[in-house]
């Protein structure tokens, strides 16, 4: 048990080191000393392309009034940090991060299942269940929920359910069924982009599953509320509320035979 606790702490440390915005800022920091320019590079990287109203909306009022932000964006283009397509009127990403860093982000920027039973959630301000990863009990919640009467017993009950992977389903080729089909009226380039995203999701999910199998194939998902009181499993690659494939691979770790 001690070894698994240490493993859990190591997984959380990897997660903390691979938070998306922190990694992107570090990757783009050699290009500029200006915090605004670094923020622009990060947002363009996330969006790949973005029009002027979108970028102005993202950066105001933090960086000034809309016109001030527009002027700053012109400076970023003139500094040759991003491209601006005059036909589409969109900012376009000029730089990419290295593939090894992208691979780490694909695997570790999202919370992984816990390989030990989650810690008991005792308050709304640190309702994660993880050892080191803190977070409010309400998804995207602000401090307005910190003193509300939340049913933490339900969260702890959901967090206490041990899960395992059905190795037959994991080893099957059914996961490829998650690849999206082309929508009516969808451009081929956009369709290819969605297919690539789905393929990356499947491949990284499979790698995470293989890691859980190596660690003994027993794990726990943590849960949070949304602002309307609905319960959501926290997770990306492994999630009981994900795609049909995500649901199909999960089983209860403690099984009982039911006589018919």
List low-pLDDT spans: none
Can you summarize the main beta sheet? 3 strands, antiparallel
- Give the strand content: 5-15%
Query: How many independent structural domains?
Result: 2
In short:
The protein is mainly alpha-helical. It has helices at 2-17, 20-28, 35-47, 52-59, 66-78, 99-108, 152-159, 167-171, 188-214, 244-248, and strands at 49-51, 83-85, 90-92, 162-165, 219-220, 222-225, 231-234, 250-252. 44% of the residues lie in helices and 10% in strands.
Structural commentary:
The structure is a single chain. The protein has helices spanning 2-17, 20-28, 35-47, 52-59, 66-78, 99-108, 152-159, 167-171, 188-214, 244-248; strands at residues 49-51, 83-85, 90-92, 162-165, 219-220, 222-225, 231-234, 250-252. The protein is mainly α. It folds into two domains: 20-92; 112-252, no CATH class. Strand 6 and strand 7 (231-234) form a beta hairpin. The mean pLDDT is 84.
